[in-house]
Amino acid sequence: MNKNKVVLAGAGVLGAQIALQSAFRGKDVTIWMRSEGSIGRTKPRIEHFYKTYLAEVENLDRIKGTDSKDYPRSFVDGVENLTDEDIQRLRKQVEDAYAGIKYELDLGKAVEDAQFIIEAVAEDVEEKRKFYHNLSQVVDDETIILSNSSTFLPSFFKDDVKHNERFLHFHFANHIWRNNTVEVMGHDGTDPEIYKRTVELGREIGMIPLELKKEQPGYLLNSLLVPFLDAGLELWANDIASPEDIDRAWTIGAGAPHGPFKIMDVVGLRTVYNINANHPGADDPNSKYGKIAGKLKGYIDAGKIGMESGEGFYKYK
Fold first, then answer.
1. CA distance readout (Å), 77 to 62, 64, 72, 154, 250
2. C-alpha closest to that of 183 among 226, 153, 228, 141
């Protein structure tokens, strides 16, 4: 087994970040995708984050030797003592990470000898179950299988995973190079030693592991965030106010950097849609979740899927 190998299954908004961050911190990273078309869509996404990482290094060069707090926490612990040599090393780390990521269509080849597989496919029950079924046919017995699922509990899929004592969830916040937390959540059959090793992986790739002692829908972050986003969506779905005014109510009134709709653009509207469309009662177009899903589908059908596509609730250059 290659104890340095991390495989990403899927590379959407978060999967791409996890892949690049893992490679940046020295992991041997392979991304498995289902088709050449998927790889074609993924490579520009990786390139976008590569350019973002390079820009972060340039910012570090500008603020080194100061007491600034405006830096990516997964890169450095502070900037007061940064040197020119540190900047050169970080720039090379980014370049090597980008150049070193591998792409593979054959699942068996992708996961061969991997210590960790991080599943980051769409938040769709059948897609995830199909992936776990196929993975169970080819995965090594010693591999640890992690999921970045934001809405499902690990116990929901544990019977779909071979050697499920080696299966747990590993959930990241967006913009992981700055918001560098990872929530670690097992199920009642997760091996405690596997849990500990997963926590170690979080630290190795520059994250601050947040250890959940039991299963919790929404983990920690989403238990706080989802009700906030849900309240904004309900106001919008009921035509109470526009996304812009709902956001302004929050950002100006609470002094916060972003409102719910700007946050959803960052997350990606497909993810937000899947969460709402899979909610009980969403098949009724007059229900709360039916209204929300219907309005979101209009954006998605128009190609407005958030920051990634250049437009969602807002337009981006």
1. 16, 12, 9, 32, 31
2. 153
Instruction: From 63, 22, 27, select the one nearest 180 (Cα to Cα).
Output: 22
End-to-end CA, the chain: 43
Q: Which residues, 6 or more positions from 61, have their beta carbon under 8 angstroms from its beta carbon?
A: 87
Q: How far apart are CA 283 and CA 19, in angstroms?
A: 35
As a whole number of angstroms, the distance between CA 307 and CA 317 comes to 9
- Residue 216 corresponds to which amino acid? Q
Per DSSP, the three-state class of 157 is helix
Residue 255, exposed/middle/buried by CB under 10 A (0-12, 13-18, 19+)?
Answer: exposed
- 3, amino acid identity: K
d(CA 103, CA 124): 23
**pLDDT tens-digit series, residues 209-218:** 999 999 999 8
- Tens of pLDDT along 56-82? 999 999 999 999 999 999 999 999 999
The pTM of this model reads 0.81
Rounded Cα gap, residues 209 and 172, in angstroms: 9
Compute the Cα dihedral for 84, 86, 89, 93 and give only its sign.
Answer: negative
Residues 116-127 pLDDT 10s: 999 999 889 999
Q: State the DSSP code for 144.
A: E
